[in-house]
Write a structure and sequence with these properties.
InterPro entries: Aliph_Amidase/BUP, C-N_Hydrolase, C-N_Hydrolase_sf
Strand content: 15-25%
Keywords: Hydrolase
Number of strands: 9
Mean pLDDT: 97
Distance between the termini: 20 Å
Low-confidence stretches: none
Pfam families: CN_hydrolase
Structural class: alpha/beta
Number of helices: 5
Organism: Pseudomonas congelans
Protein name: NAD+ synthase (Glutamine-hydrolysing)
Oligomer: single chain
């Protein structure tokens, strides 16, 4: 049996610059495809940077025309790709979103369900789990603090996930603890974990990098 090749993009976002960051995302996608990947995961809010003070101004709808190049390249490269973006929700809410552009041309939206303290001043929590289909495998998607709640990983495993994909911002001081949580989920549920962290500072936070599986 052959398995999909997975890639984590340790991306350095430029604060609030969607166009610049979009170009970087497209370059990462091209490189991942050259390496044979069929799934690529970006960090939390990768398209804007983790910038809560700008999130309401920058929030997008899933069908925003600026995202069309991502959708087109995912199809061209046959590379299902998950990017981080603030999403406009109902009643003028803003969500910490993860948009997945599939190799078949679909766009799948997920909103972070468990917010860090203080994030609720800007963001609204999502309320639905998200699975992605990659060949015959199911990917259970999470955004950062989601994985700190054991019940989230447990639901993913019980839902038949083959992989737990974590789009995150983890600082150097929190890395060992958070890596321990992720590896604990992997062992407890026999569920591999793919983690994509930022490659540089964003939103006033340093990033530990160290993305991996």
């Amino acid at each position: 049996m052959t398995f999909p090749i997975l890639a984590a993009a340790q991306f350095c976002s430029r604060r609030g610059d969607i166009q610049h960051n979009l170009s970087g995302h497209l370059a990462f996608m091209q490189r991942a495809a050259e390496l044979g990947a069929s799934y690529l995961l970006f960090p939390e809010l990768s398209l804007t940077g983790y910038e809560p003070d700008l999130a309401r101004e920058l929030a997008l709808l899933a069908d925003d025309a600026r995202l069309a190049p991502l959708a087109a390249l995912a199809v061209k490269l046959q590379l299902t790709t998950t990017v981080g973006v603030p999403l406009r929700g109902p009643s003028d809410s803003v969500l910490i979103g993860a948009l997945t552009f599939t190799a078949a041309g679909d766009v799948i939206a997920y909103a972070k369900q468990y917010l860090h303290p203080g994030e609720d001043a800007v963001f609204t929590a999502g309320n639905q789990d998200c699975y992605l289909l990659l060949d015959q495998h199911r990917i259970g998607l999470c955004v950062c603090a989601d994985f700190s709640h054991a019940e989230h990983a447990q639901r993913m495993a019980q839902g038949g996930a083959w992989l737990y994909a974590a789009s995150v911002l983890i600082s150097p001081g929190g890395y060992e603890y958070d890596a321990g949580l992720l590896s604990g989920h992997a062992r407890r549920h026999s569920l591999p974990v793919l983690m994509a962290n930022h490659g540089g500072a964003t939103g006033g936070w340093l990033s530990a990098g160290r993305s991996g599986l």
